[in-house]
Give the backbone structure.
Amino acid sequence: MDNTNGQVVAGGKGEGNRSNQLDRPTDMLIDKETDSLIICDRGNRRVVRWSRPSGTTQEEILIDNIKCWGLALDDQRSLYISDYDKHEVRRYQIEDKNGTIVAGGNGQGAGLNQLNFPTYIFVDQQQTVYVSDNNNHRVMKWNKGAEEGIIVAGGSGKGNALTQLSYPHGLFVDALGTIYVADTVNDRVMRWPKGAKQGTAIVGGNGEGAGANQFNGPFGLSFDRHGNLYVVDCWNHRVQRFSIE
């Protein structure tokens, strides 16, 4: 594979709302069952599916009229979408257009049953929903069927102490319940062991900058099967890879 040149697999026809266009997409995932891409087409307020094998240049609209930011798919192929306007996360079954609220949905706020601009989400095998609760500077954990969430990272106000986050975005939770979160305005990625009162900056945390150990607005993050961490370094216009101990 030539890894120096990318291939356009969705959009690429400029910003717009036609069926072959996207507008400021924020998240995507691969649905292996249908070999398709599911994309949060944020600027167009819709979640769309692009088929991969057919090489199609057109999309299928799955959910319309939603101010989406983050996406997740569970083992039963239920789709989870964060809505930063309604301050909630909903779970959708295949062909379901309405969904069920699984986090937030009680208006904008800082209560344990509320969210304030939820961005990225992560869903584990127990259908527990983790949410980067951006404007509350915390990560929330909502167990399946829960009426309110649990603060599992941050929640001590905006700041750069090890007990704090500042506008968190990208999120990953491992099998032990350890949380990895892109602490965007603090230009670091935090690791928060299950039950811990504070986190550790595992990469970044060296001030805003373009050095190999710095970020300028880390947004998305992901791990590969070898345990390497990949971070979308937004305002440095790059993706960085780190080997994590």
